[in-house]
């Protein structure tokens, strides 16, 4: 019972227990000339049980109904737990038929736990595929970069060899021109001497 006959209550306590507006309680207190203590109404439990009998009865029925629901839920839970225990015992007995090696393990999950485990497993598989994809992309980038470096090295080496070859050709050309020029000069000197154009003792500087 929400109200006890041998206990006194304030307006606030009555309002909270019986779920009644405080102004309504004040009106009832004035009507029945309830005693005040320190300018505050104080209600005896016997008075409340008499005046608010219908409200207390409704609350008691509501509490009893909720208690019955809780009891029923508790019974349902007990039945479910018993069924789950029987299922676990059956699984254990079935597991005895299988041989489990040292690197194997068997776990028993509830349905909710298995759904969560299955979700996490699928997420892990997707993440693993993404990691493998990224690793492949990185390997391809590294391979492409290495190929480019090797290409530029080969191109540089080719250009260097070409430059060396052109330099050698230029050096040979200059040497040939010098030799040809020297031979022409000697021949011209000889011809000039033969024709007495220049003194036989003249020599080029």
Overview of the molecule:
The protein is mainly alpha-helical and 205 residues long. It has a domain at 8-74. It has five helices and three strands. The protein has helices spanning 11-18, 22-31, 45-51, 53-95, 111-194, and strands at 8-10, 36-37, 40-44. It has a three-stranded antiparallel β-sheet. Strand 2 and strand 3 (40-44) form a beta hairpin. The longest helix is centred in the last third of the chain and has 84 residues, at 111-194. The protein is elongated and about 165 Å long. The chain starts with 7 loop residues before the first strand and ends in an 11-residue tail after the last helix.
Structural features:
205 residues, mainly alpha, three-stranded antiparallel beta sheet, 74% helix
Give the DSSP E fraction (strand runs of 2 or more residues).
Answer: under 5%
**How much helicity do the residues have?**
over 70%
Overall spatial form: elongated
Q: Quote the distance from N terminus to C terminus.
A: 142 Å
The pLDDT mean sits at 78
Largest sheet, spatial ordering of strands: 1-3-2
Rg, rounded, reads 56 Å
Order of helices and strands: EHHEEHHH
Structure classification: mainly alpha
Instruction: Tally the helices.
Output: 5
Low-confidence stretches: none
Largest sheet: 3 strands, antiparallel
Secondary structure: number of strands: 3
């Amino acid at each position: 019972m929400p109200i006890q006959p041998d206990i006194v209550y304030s307006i606030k306590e009555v309002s909270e227990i019986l779920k009644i507006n405080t102004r309504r309680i004040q009106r009832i207190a004035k009507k029945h000339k309830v005693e005040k203590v320190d300018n505050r109404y104080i209600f005896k439990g016997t008075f409340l049980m008499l005046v608010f009998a219908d409200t207390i009865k409704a609350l008691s029925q509501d509490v009893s109904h909720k208690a019955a629901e809780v009891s029923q839920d508790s019974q349902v839970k007990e039945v479910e737990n018993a069924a789950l225990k029987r299922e676990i015992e059956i699984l254990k007995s079935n597991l005895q038929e299988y041989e489990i090696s040292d690197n194997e393990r068997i776990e028993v999950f509830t349905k909710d736990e298995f759904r969560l485990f299955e979700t996490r497993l699928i997420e892990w598989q997707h993440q693993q595929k993404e990691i493998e994809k990224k690793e492949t992309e990185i390997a391809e980038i590294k391979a492409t970069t290495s190929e480019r470096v090797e290409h530029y090295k080969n191109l540089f080496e080719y250009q260097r060899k070409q430059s060396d070859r052109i330099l050698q050709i230029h050096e040979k050309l200059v040497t040939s021109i010098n030799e040809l020029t020297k031979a022409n000069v000697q021949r011209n000197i000889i011809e000039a001497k033969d024709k007495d154009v220049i003194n036989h003792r003249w020599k080029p500087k």
